[in-house]
């Protein structure tokens, strides 16, 4: 290169350099505040464990263990039990879950980067299956799976150093792996960065999972696992914390206005990816994918199967904040709904008020569907009373029918006919169950007013539910009374309909 060319090239380079620097400063004044490269596993070994051994505090969901508060690496002992047990998956529905620590998701484990974790996995003697554990926070083939294969009545032990900070899923990896995961064998382990996470007022543990039962959604009784539905990725339930209503009503996550809340959210899968969203909140921070960086001001964050995220937000106004998978049929028709309830004074300058109304969250807003559960239990023993059917039907009516026909069955003039004191029902009470199952289309006259619309078939309801809702409607608001049994509902479902709405 001749000297002229060389000096031109140099000048151009200098111009580029200085221009580049200047622009960068202007564009991004916060650059200095960004976290540095953590160095990953190569910098994750913070030396040998110091001090006495620490027994890890494990918590059941939705609780999170306290921060480790440690400034140096330690040897941490974890004792986790595998328990196979029947638990409710929805009201009046049970399922045989396989669990880490007796809950779905499994116990929350919290350690600090650099810790040496001595992991004891015990498989209870009454288990039918062998199990193991693959922790995504482990550096080493299988994440611990090969070292932790444990037959019923046995204990296994392995040790790992937590080299990478982050929020990690753990799960069983015993064949058939999909089945072990589908039965609830997953949980979260938080590996705190050396400096810890910024303090907040409340921390909660929520984990999504998809479930596959032979019966349809809310079909009562004990429901076995359905391998075919699982392979087809057609879940019957999509749930937060392993059972419908785990975090609603009396079990809603409590918080107060003015508090900052942190959610540790995992997705066990086995199949679905979660579009995790909290209705009425914006995440101030999301440590997306459970990693070391946070994004700010996020509405919905994607949580892959076998992945996790941490999110912080501050509560400004009171009310019910609804956690959903925003693949929204999963929320309203498969159970993927939880509630965080903030108590405290209104702040009308920020929000004018009014609770999320019953229409939005339907019967899931209620403390529980206890009456539905009682009715299911009585139906099984063969002594279901009319009162129990009415009580169960009342709870199901809310959110299913009340959206259109209104909470007291009064209807909405010109749009939805009344069910209260309906002369249409009185003329032929049998029609109620038929209309629920097959829908209703075309002109009808109810209490002297004409309607010509379309009620879609409520085919998502089980025979139980149709029977109980019909019985509730027949025995309410001046209607003629009567009773519909589950068997009658099943017959009506099989019969060709006279009322059917289009497309049925
Ligand atoms: Cu297992």
From TrEMBL:
Signal peptide positions (record): none
Keyword Lipid metabolism attributed: no
Superkingdom, natural source: Bacteria
Region of interest (Disordered), ranges: 21-70
Domain Cytochrome c: 388-477
EC number: 1.7.2.1
Catalytic activity field: nitric oxide + Fe(III)-[cytochrome c] + H2O = Fe(II)-[cytochrome c] + nitrite + 2 H(+)
Cofactor(s) this protein requires: Cu(2+); Cu(+)
Keywords: Copper, Heme, Iron, Metal-binding, Oxidoreductase, Repeat
Similarity comment: family membership: Belongs to the multicopper oxidase family.
Subunit structure: Homotrimer.
Stated name of the protein: Copper-containing nitrite reductase
Organism of this sequence: Lysobacter panacisoli
């Amino acid at each position: 290169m001749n000297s002229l060319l060389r000096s031109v090239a140099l000048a151009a380079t200098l111009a580029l350099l200085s221009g580049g620097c200047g622009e960068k400063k202007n564009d991004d004044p916060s650059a200095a505040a960004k976290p540095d490269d953590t160095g990953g596993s190569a910098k994750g070994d913070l030396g040998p464990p110091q001090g006495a051994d620490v027994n890890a505090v494990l918590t059941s969901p939705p609780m999170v263990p306290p921060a480790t508060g440690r400034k140096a690496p330690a040897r941490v002992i974890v004792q986790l039990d595998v328990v196979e047990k029947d638990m409710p998956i929805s009201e009046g529905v049970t399922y045989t879950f396989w669990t880490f620590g007796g809950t779905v998701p499994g116990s929350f484990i919290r350690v600090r980067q650099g810790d040496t974790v001595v992991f004891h996995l015990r498989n209870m003697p009454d288990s039918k299956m062998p199990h193991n554990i693959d922790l995504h926070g482990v550096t080493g083939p299988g994440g611990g799976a090969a070292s932790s294969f444990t037959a019923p009545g046995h204990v296994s032990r392995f040790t790992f150093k937590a080299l990478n900070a982050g929020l990690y899923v753990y799960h069983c990896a015993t064949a058939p792996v999909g089945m072990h995961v589908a039965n609830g064998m997953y949980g979260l382990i938080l590996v705190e960065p050396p400096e810890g996470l910024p303090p907040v007022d409340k921390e909660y543990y929520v984990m999504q999972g998809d479930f596959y039962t032979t019966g349809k959604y809310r079909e009562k009784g004990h429901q076995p696992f359905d391998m075919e539905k699982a392979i087809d990725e057609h879940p019957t339930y999509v749930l937060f914390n392993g059972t419908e209503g785990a975090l609603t009503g009396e079990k809603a996550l409590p918080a107060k206005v003015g508090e900052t809340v942190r959610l540790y959210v995992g997705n066990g899968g086995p199949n679905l990816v979660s579009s995790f969203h909290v209705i009425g909140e914006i995440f101030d921070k999301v440590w997306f994918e459970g990693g070391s960086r946070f994004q700010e001001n996020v509405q919905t964050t994607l949580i892959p199967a076998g992945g996790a995220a941490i999110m912080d937000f501050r509560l400004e106004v009171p009310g019910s904040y609804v956690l959903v998978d925003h693949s929204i049929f999963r929320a309203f028709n498969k159970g993927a709904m939880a509630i965080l309830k903030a108590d405290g004074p209104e702040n009308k300058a920020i929000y004018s008020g009014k609770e999320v109304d019953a229409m939005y969250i339907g019967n899931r807003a209620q403390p529980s569907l206890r009456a539905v559960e009682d009715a299911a239990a009585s139906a099984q023993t063969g002594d279901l009373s009319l009162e129990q059917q009415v009580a169960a039907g009342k709870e199901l009516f809310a959110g299913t029918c009340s959206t259109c026909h209104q909470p007291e069955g009064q209807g909405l003039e010109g749009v939805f006919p009344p069910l209260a004191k309906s002369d249409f029902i009185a003329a032929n009470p049998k029609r109620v169950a038929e209309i629920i199952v097959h829908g209703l289309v075309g002109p009808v006259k109810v209490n002297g007013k004409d309607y010509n619309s379309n009620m879609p078939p409520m085919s998502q309801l089980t025979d139980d539910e149709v029977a109980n809702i019909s019985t509730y409607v027949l025995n309410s608001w001046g209607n003629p009374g009567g009773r519909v049994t589950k068997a009658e509902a099943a017959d009506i479902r099989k019969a060709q309909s006279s009322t059917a709405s289009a497309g049925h």
